[in-house]
């Protein structure tokens, strides 16, 4: 470590009114002096709050001349000792190929200049409708601009790299006060949580015995999330608009003990707090919902539970829907279209065994098998080809999938075709019943939705329980059966499709492909109850901007900025 840089506004302008300017400066300089004594110099960029407290001459003497250190032998590593300006360049002997530049963002400013002076008069003549024309911003004066050009020309001729420090952003893409800035003009926020999988049951393991699951504590994570979201909504009125449950809000454990509805009510009671205070909670259908309910019951009890006095009809699922996929919009944000997909449109779970939907799902894929996942455990002997057992028959083995081997089961190397043991650790692992497919009817609907969005120049954000990009969930055991079809469709409309949010994997995942950002979220179910509750939680807030998204993760969810 060689030096530090204070990017400005070291003390606040409030100190002037309080008569505390020198006292405040002395307090903040104490730790800076400790750094300089122990390591190296601290360089300073002049900020507007320094100019509220000092004239430019005072600033130079109190801060620029304060930049020194016994560990710095070269004068080229410090501001010039007789400078009368607040800009300069320096070179550290340890990195002679890099030149560092400290700019004065207030070379032309009404701040720090005596009223009536030429600098003050020229500054107040700056005018325009642009938001940057306010006194707390400033400009690089002409003399400094000429100096800067000379420094940059010399650096280029001598093949030196340049790093610039300044208090006020010098590029519109970095400025919060410019309408064309990256991730600016924030319009709304929405929030996300995945895989709560609540059950009033003791902690357990996934079927492979590789991940601990906290069935009761998942509901506590949901409570924390909802409380945080409501609190943030209270201080950002009309900004937070909706929440999305990415699926598996209750666990399959509830079905064999007759607790499906009571578990669902426990979860929706918490969601109702958000719907009452903020806006609707949208739900993605997950495999665990379908272990508890038929698809028709899910739509009635969960999809249509999405409603709020703060939302209009365009912001909630159609009241007459019979399917678990739909689009919604926010009236304040017409340039965005939100899509909820049903990754179990083609699935053997959630459909009666004798239904056309079940028969169609049995045949899905053509060239790959749909098999049981047995892990290291042998399935109950009743789980034979052609039979669909009740869930409790599988519980002794902690395996919540049932299925029917289809044509091409020869691709499964096991004598017992109900086992995936020994199958390649690749995308063929997705051929299990806890995954599913987007059915042809839904695909045709989605194609039309995306084509319309492209024509309307809308940004599209999709929500789905099962990941649809293989790079988000390697080796692929929790991947959509027909992911290739869906991603190809999205790629064909990449000018509008911006992001896809999923759960199901229980681990964080991210991929960017054709400019589309795919994010998979850690399961709330697998956040252990510990003394450090702030770290052991999993949910996120998404800030929606004119030209990007900012995901603010809580606990184990990473933050991510997406721009286009």
Automatic annotation (TrEMBL):
Any one GO molecular function term: ADP-ribose diphosphatase activity
InterPro entries named among the record's database cross-references: Calcineurin-like_PHP, Metallo-depent_PP-like
Domain Calcineurin-like phosphoesterase residues, every copy: 5-175
Source organism, top-level taxon: Eukaryota
Protein name: Calcineurin-like phosphoesterase domain-containing protein
Organism: Aphanomyces invadans
